[in-house]
Amino acid sequence: MEMTDLLSRIIRSNSISSINPAIDQGNREVIDLLANTLGELGFTTEIMDLGNNKANLIATYAAVQVAWCWLAIRIRFPVTNHSGIAVPLN
């Protein structure tokens, strides 16, 4: 899958987190998409089910661990190597 295709699928996926139940949505579709894509790239993935169709994803490649945490409508991608030094995403 091309990067533009992946980004397009991520953007189209419902994943709004809100304290307003009327607009709150799960992120499981996006988490599954990322887990499958990263798995195809050689990552070991772990999905942590949070209930209500929500989850967090931990993806590990060699000694590098990537945590996908969904907070409100913001996404954080903390990436460090085994020494705790930030590693840029390619």
Write the layout of secondary structure elements.
Layout: H1 3-12, H2 28-40, E1 44-51, E2 54-61, E3 64-71, E4 74-76, E5 79-80
Antiparallel strand pairs: 1-2, 2-3, 3-4, 3-5
How would you describe this structure to a colleague?
The protein is α+β, with helices and mostly antiparallel strands and 90 residues long. The protein has one domain. It is 26% helix and 32% strand. It has helices at residues 3-12, 28-40, and strands at residues 44-51, 54-61, 64-71, 74-76, 79-80. Strands 1, 2, 3, 4 and 5 form a five-stranded antiparallel beta sheet that branches. The protein is flat, with a radius of gyration of 14 Å. Mean pLDDT is 75; it is low at 70-78.
Separation of termini? 15 Å
Number of strands: 5
Please, what is the oligomeric state?
single chain
Beta-strand fraction estimate: 25-35%
**Estimated structural class:** alpha+beta
> What overall geometry do the principal axes of the alpha carbons give?
flat
Please report the number of helical segments.
2
Which descriptors would you attach to this protein?
90 residues, alpha+beta, 5-stranded antiparallel β-sheet, 2 helices, 32% strand
